[in-house]
Write a structure and sequence with these properties.
Blueprint (H helix, E strand, L loop, with lengths): L1 E10 L7 E16 L2 E8 L2 E16 L9 H10 L6 H4 L9 E11 L2 E10 L7 H6 L3 H7 L4 E11 L5 E7 L7 E3 L2 E2 L4 E7 L4
Amino acid sequence: YWNFIQFAVIVDFEQQPPLGLQAQNLARARIAGFEPTLNGRGSIGPVQLRFQGGYTYSYGVDLSVDSTLRNVGRFTKNLFRGIASNDKEIVGPILNYRPRHLVKSDLEVEYKVLMIGTEVQVYTVNENVDFFLAAVIPGINEYRERNTKAKAVWNARIYYDMGKIGRIGLIENNILNKEYTIREARMEPPRNLTVQYRIKLN
């Protein structure tokens, strides 16, 4: 990519609040990856089953940090090494605020008027962040030092179909009440329960 946009922390005391994020152009960036998915459905007698799963691997680098990655062969080598390696030469040029790995799986079981579903999402950490963000927001460095491994988040849902009058459901997210963040300085919600009612208007 030419002129790839990346967010950076800025300080401007002429604006309120003085601290913010600004989209800035990188001279050169290179991104590659893959995303295999698996979808399936079937039945066991009257019970309907549906499954969706996927894995996303993304390796995006700032070529100004490591200009040797302009060489396609070297970049391709690091791309595949980066699937399992955390060596400095792999991690160092990775673009800020971008995790390499994401895993998602979803299973639904439906029987007559009842549907039960469960979902697991696995997030890896953002290996690089803007150094200034870590300097000005208390606790960022401590949190990153404590949380160096991927976090698995488990969600579940149950719905009851009431026919023409609609469908009611309970959705519980982050069942294990994991403390995690997808973007630094923005914690994701703790365990929460939602009651949902859906109706179709013809």
